[in-house]
Amino acid sequence: MRIVSTLFVAFSAAVVLTSCGAGGDNQGTEYAPNMYHSVAYEPYSQITDEDAGRWLTSIDYPDGHAEFYNSNKFNPYRMNMRESAPHTVARNKHGWLPYRLGKDSLAFAAANVKSPLDSTAAIIADGKVLYETYCDHCHGPKGKGDGKVAAGGIKVEVNGEQKERSIYAGVANLTSDALKGVSEGHIFHVITMGKGLMWSHGSQISPEDRWKIAKYVKTLQK
Amino acid sequence: MSSDSRFVPLVLKTDTEPNMNRNFISSACKFLSLVFVFAFLNLTSNAQEISKEPAAISAGETLFNANCKACHRVKSKLVGPALQNVYDRAPSIDWIKSFVKNSSGVIASGDDYANKLYNEFNKTQMTAFSSFKDADIMNILAYIKAETEKVAVTQVPNGPVPPTGGGDGGVSKTYLDVILAGMLLILVLLLIILGFLVSALKRFLDQKELSEEEKEVVHSPITLGTVTSSSGFIFIVVFLAGALGFKAVINGLYSIGIQQGYAPKQPIAFSHKIHAGQLEIDCKYCHVGVMKGKSATIPSVNICMNCHNQIKEGQQTGTGEIAKITAAWENKKPIEWVRIHNLPDLAYFNHSQHVNVAGVECQTCHGPIETMDVVRQHSLLTMGWCIDCHRKTDVNTKGNAYYDKLVELHKEKSKTPMKVEDEGGLECAKCHY
Question: Mean pLDDT per 10-residue run, chain B (433 residues)?
Fold first, then answer.
């Protein structure tokens, strides 16, 4: 009987410990949890429950929250991320100020805004990499408007049924006669502000990178 | 382009097409064609201008694919209207020409038909194709006409798609069943053979001269009780249970603080398999911070909307999940994704150092993310895991002047390539501070 009870204890310990592992919705057991959880605000974690981690709280926080609480109650949605302070502008390492022309100034931008970059091979090579990251899936590797997101007629199987994949319609062929002649300023403005069916990509791509892409697009159009 | 009959009717309208003359050779030719066309007009009542010549159609097809296909299909509405029968529908062929060349001009001139179209299509302005010649537009129309007519023919044989086979899932299952049944049969046969052996042995021993004690042993019945109480059996059971239990305990202890395999349900059933796998959208298109900062960044809703302003129906979940993005966009409410990779606060990790400077692929740490419908933590993210990689990996020094001197110094002392370890990749304060 002693053997049986020993076995039983060992097994229950094993079962308890196996449940420490993570999987599915279970995050697993943290080792030394108060070293996991930041006291400072963390941009991508937010714990809004003020009582989270009460069981190991050893500090008297001024507003009485528990150890794991990490959320800024003064921000919208109690987010930890902040928007930049009003009336301030970001400058990049070249000291460029943000692009200020409005969305409807495409014609003006096309005629007057000039690329600050030289057409060196290195810059065009950078532009190619960036184009392949940000434009390729719509405009296609050669700018023909045939990227994977825009290419029609591709069938996918959904629950045993063949369905035509949704596509992004209306993607411009950058090498078409209508667009061949556009200036780099035009392309820069379209990336920044969007145009028609193409939405603005200004939040994703820095101004310098946008100019590099514009340079590369011009080489595609040759 | 030869001046074949399809251009001829344009000659009739030279007053509205002042630049037409350059396409034609001589007035004599014009006159001849005029006569010709009048005869032709009596025979065919509509769309007589549009060529049926294969050369024109294929030239039109090339032009159509390069310039129009982005927004137009022949038989279905896309961004702009379906183009079948435009030549009958639009006010005139001339109208089509001027609209293609300068749509906003036609709209601004107050043209009824153009304004109706403009409003019907959400005031989307069509690109002006000012470089097109009339001949180009006629070729495109020839292509559209050919397609319009072809469509009517090819649509007929559109029967139900024959079911494709019985699915190989069924096949492999029966295969497994056969193997299982075979194994069972062999086991039963073995049991029978063993039974025969036992009785044969018994008979053999019975024929010998045995003492009473020995006889008892030979004839003692074999029951479940006698088997389970035998010491050999108990030893095996205890040993197996002990070993398994020990392994389970060790595994359990090792899994504390490790979140490998964590795959929480997200507020929107976003699939990396579709976006990164099928559509091959670059990881960095959405995770824009990865080359620049500590965090790879979770895309903000406007990045989703770059495509999902138009794409409203997904392959797997229909419209339900995508509608959540639109709702978040319209209500200006952020989507609360569940964080998967939780590095302890005591360790510092920077994405740009690894992805931008070292050129490490996303998959090196995140696993085959482009095949995952639900993202799970692929790697251990333990210190041992970090250190292991820092010991094995060569520093990506190519084209980076920062490393030039370090590489030189390293070469003086060692013949092996410089590893991360060699430039302080194992120092405590690199990650813990």
Answer: 36 37 46 46 51 87 81 78 86 87 85 85 78 86 85 46 42 85 96 92 84 79 80 92 91 87 94 92 96 93 94 86 95 92 91 95 95 94 94 92 92 92 92 90
Cβ of A22 and B248 within 8 Å?
no
Whether A57 shows a pLDDT value over 80: the answer reads yes
Do B144 and B276 lie in a common domain?
no
pLDDT score at A153: 67
* Residue B312 C-alpha, separation from nearest chain A C-alpha, in angstroms: 8
pLDDT value, residue B48: 52
Nearest to A30 among B246, B257, B284 (CB): B257
Residues of B in contact with A158 (CB under 8 A): 315-316
Residues of B in contact with A202 (CB under 8 A): none
Nearest CB to A132; choose among B79, B131, B282: B282
Global confidence as pTM: 0.74
Report d(CA B105, CA B118) in Å as an integer.
12
The residue range of the domain holding B63 is 54-96+129-148
CA distance A144 to chain B (A): 7
**Residues on chain B touching A163 (C-beta within 8 angstroms):** 315
- The answer to whether residue B310 is domain-embedded is yes
Q: ipTM value, please give it.
A: 0.90
CB contact under 8 A, A203 and B242: no
What is the pLDDT, as a whole number, of residue B167? 41
Asked whether the beta carbons of residue B312 and residue A166 sit closer than 8 angstroms, the reply is: yes
Helix, strand, or coil (residue B251)? helix
Q: What is the CATH number of the domain that holds B74?
A: 1.10.760.10
CA atoms of B352 and B97, how far apart (whole Å): 53
Q: Chain A residue closest to B126 (CA)?
A: A196
Residue B247 counted as domain residue: no
As annotated, the residues of chain A forming the CATH 1.10.760.10 domain(s) are 106-220
What is d(CA B80, CA A10) in angstroms, rounded to the nearest whole number?
71
For residue A176, give the nearest of B67, B73, B333 by CB distance. B67
CATH 1.10.760.10 assigned to A106-220: yes
Q: Could you give the residue ranges of the DSSP H alpha helices within B26-78?
A: 27-43, 54-63
Residues A31 and B88: their CA atoms lie apart, in Å, by: 75
**Which is it for the CA torsion B176, B177, B178, B180, positive or negative?**
positive
Least confident of A54-63, A92-101, B207-216, B315-324: B207-216
Residues of A in contact with B130 (CB under 8 A): 178
Residues of A in contact with B125 (CB under 8 A): 196
Residues of A in contact with B298 (CB under 8 A): 44
> In this predicted model, what pLDDT tens digit does every residue of A133-186 receive, in sequence order?
999 999 999 999 889 998 876 777 777 777 777 788 889 999 988 898 999 999
Q: Look at residue B236 in the predicted model and tell me its pLDDT.
A: 93
**How far apart (Å, rounded) are the C-alpha atoms in residues A106 and A189?**
6
The answer to whether residue B302 sits within a structural domain is: yes
Distance between alpha carbon B424 and the CA centroid of its chain, in Å? 39
Give the best residue of A129, A167, A199 to mutate against chain B (max B CB count within 10 A).
A199
Is B263 domain-assigned? no
Distance from C-alpha of B108 to C-alpha of B114, rounded to nearest angstrom: 9
**Is A17's CB within 8 Å of B251's CB?**
yes
Which tokens sit at B83? Answer: 């183009």
Tokens 């004839």 label which residue?
A: B219
